[in-house]
Amino acid sequence: MIKLAKRIKSRFPTLLNQEYSNKSYYFRFTDTQRTRESAKFFTIGLFGNEAQHVWFPEPEKKDQILRFYKLCDKWIKEVDENSKSSEELEKFLLTDEVKDMLKRVAERMNYTVNYEDVKSMYTTCGFETAWNRETKSPWCSLLSERDFKILEYAEDLKYYWNDGYGFEINRNQACPLIKNVFTQFLTKDGPQSVFYFTHSATMLKTLSHLGLYKDEYKLTHNVQDKQRDSRKWKVSKIDTFSSNVIFVLYCCGDGLKVLLLHQERIMKFPGCNEGDMCSLKKLEELFKKSLSDCDFQNICSLK
Fold first, then answer.
1. Sorting pLDDT into bands at 50, 70 and 90, what band is 91?
2. ∠25-243-56 over CA atoms, to 5°?
3. CA atoms in the 13 A half-sphere facing the CB of 23
């Protein structure tokens, strides 16, 4: 988080050149220890020793902006607690492809394993690789590149249906956050820089709401290898540690424009063909429903 903040500051030196003040900067995180720590170390990257003076508002127990899915009864019942959301994953785990993978891993270990065992190896390999970049996790050596691709696809199936394009409610409920972005842009006397610290589930639903990484087909258990290998929805790429989305408002000679970045890379807004930046006016058209018809209670109601 420290390094991320330093990179962002160096990328936007005229935007992030002021010393800290409540009027210029606003930081907000959810009611969890991990997002609180993320915010803390991010501000260290921005302000150095001055970070100790940063004011953080008390997190909301029920945050409709940063953790909307926790308040969305319809999503909780129809997706998160519904076996339908895991149907494609369950079907995939019964394929010969997965069964063969389990056999290969068992032969390497000379020990019988099930899918949950191998998934734990995959997860531990990922965490240990992230924490200890100088040494190779022994768990990684038990898996081949082919095994990794299978495990990655299984993970993508899970998040595609639970947080992504699998169900309309997944992305529809993110409208309060998108609406808040536009509100910040149009508030003349507000802070110049706003930073939110939230969770993977919020990030994936927001990416879906923006229309990013959407494949032309639904991810299912029987997607052909060629299609699967070229899919856009890859959680290990789009939702990494410290995953981030950045909206930057520019005042240009021909009007207000917005630059979108994901993982610090410039992204074009789907539906906007104006170049790397999209005019605020065009974005208001593209997200008209999110801005004028964002009735969260109605979207998430079970009635």
1. very high
2. 30
3. 4
